[in-house]
Every structure is written in C-alpha cells, then in structure tokens.
Specification:
The chain has 5 helices and no strands. With about 80 residues, it is mainly α. α4 packs antiparallel against α5. The longest helix is centred in the middle third of the chain and has 25 residues.
Length: about 80
C-alpha cells in the first residue's frame, strides 16, 4: 500500500515545470520583456529635441517675431 502512494506522488511531480515546458515559455517571455523595457528606455532618452535654428524658423513662420528680429537672432545663433 505504501508503494502505491509513492508511485502516485511521483506521478504528481511530473508536471510541466519538471519536464521543461514551463521554462520554454518563461525564458523567452522574460527575454522579450527585458528587450522591450530596454528599447522603451532607449527611445525615451533619445527623444529628439528641436535645434535652436528650427525653433527660430518656427517662430518666424508663425509670425511671433518679425524679419529684423529673426535676422538678429539668426546671427546670434550662427556666431555661437
């Protein structure tokens, strides 16, 4: 009778994690999450910032500054 209990307990331990199928799902999932996190952080850090020249051009096009002010600021930007 004790031997049949041991056989049943051995059969219960042969689940997906014991034979490796669980690891075949978990390891790629963790690798993907790691990659996605790194990519998200990298993209956030490399976010483009407009250059001063582009900002000046935008302000001129929008009419926020006149031609004289644009040319003055353009000279300042080019000299620095």
């Amino acid at each position: 009778m004790e031997e049949s209990k041991k056989d049943k307990s051995k059969k219960k331990k042969n689940g997906a994690w014991t034979i490796g199928w669980g690891w075949m799902i978990t390891v790629p999932a963790l690798a993907f999450l790691s990659w996605a996190t790194k990519k998200g952080i990298k993209d956030a850090l490399e976010e483009e910032h407009p250059s001063p020249l582009n900002l000046l051009k935008e302000r001129y096009v929008k009419g926020e500054i006149d031609r004289n002010e644009y040319e003055e600021k353009l000279r300042d930007i080019m000299s620095s």
